[in-house]
Specification:
Elements (H helix, E strand, L loop, with lengths): L13 E7 L6 H11 L9 E5 L5 E7 L4 E7 L15 E4 L1 H9 L19
Parallel strand pairs: 1-2
Antiparallel strand pairs: 1-5, 2-3, 3-4
Length: 122
């Protein structure tokens, strides 16, 4: 049984930086990536996620009122499953997909059912 302390509101955007990041970077180095490359406000209510070359480590930063929270997860075995065919500097996922990612699932391969708009009921 696993216990996850990471619980985000459903409306919190989660941005994955779509390039390899040196995991030696501290909070300040990750904030510089958010500001200089992603052109986003690191103090917004968003979580920014970064991965290393081997895709076996992730770091994320999140602003919380008076300071950044730094989360780091190295895998003991295996790799995180990040999509390879997404263009752009970043892409956004929701908190459900983040949980899938952290558990090791290939969230990008999962397909959601399309929204159904019924015009006739009988």
């Amino acid at each position: 049984m696993g216990c996850y302390m990471l619980s985000l509101a459903p409306d919190v955007p989660i941005y994955i930086y779509n390039d390899v990041t040196d995991m030696r970077k501290s909070i300040n180095g990750l904030v510089l990536l958010v500001v200089d490359i992603l052109k986003k406000d690191p103090q917004s209510k968003a979580l920014y996620l970064f991965y290393n070359k081997n895709m076996d480590k992730v770091k994320s930063i999140f602003w919380d009122q008076n300071g950044f929270i730094l989360l780091y997860k190295p895998l003991e075995k295996g790799r995180f499953k990040f999509p390879k065919d997404i263009g752009g500097l970043e892409y956004e996922i929701d908190s459900d997909l983040l949980q899938w990612l952290l558990k090791g699932f290939d969230f990008y391969a999962l397909k959601h059912h399309p929204d159904l708009k019924k015009s006739q009921y009988f």
